[in-house]
Amino acid sequence: MRRVALVVAVGLLLAGCGNVVRQADRADEQVRAAVETMAKSSFSYHHTAAGDEYDGLVHRPSKSTTLRLSTREGAVTTETVLIGDRGWVRTNADLTAVGDAPPLDEISPWSEVTAETLSEPPFRYVAGADALVGAELFSSVSGLHETAPLTYAGTIDLTANMYLNATNGAAAPKELDQARAVPMTVTLDDRGHITRVTIDVPAAPTKSEFSDFDAVTAPTAPKS
């Protein structure tokens, strides 16, 4: 009887392990599928990192992306518009609240960015909000498992690419080993879109939120 009981116990244990593996595989498949869905969808986004804020939209039919980056004190705002293979950028500097700097509130004119520059970091990760929700970002994610309906936790290797997730360097962990396995959470909606990504960078967690799926208006080219 003891031998039978042992065999049954081992069988149950192995069955349980198999179930855990299947659940992990399913979680990974769900999130990877959501990344592919985002690559085909238009949306607006809001991202916070180290006190800075990133706002913009992605419009797939026109191959357009916008980004508005505001620094922690709101002293500098940079705007970027990408449409097809063209791009424009401008900066607004307001230093009146920074130390003893003289008053300055100046909006620079739009400047067109060369195609060569657009193909290099960081611009190449602005397009499609790839830095926040692209396949390259999620290629360094592992250990995904479901913690609640449509909510998945895992870890991400932030050393894979410094431009991904817009941590701005200062927010990245100092220890490389720690940076290779930073806890993260991904939330989906019932249509398979990613609605939120949080990454628990020590002392400076980042959060990305996505909404207005396939309901954003295509941006127009700025006058430079």
TrEMBL record:
It comes from the Bacteria. This is Lipoprotein LprG.
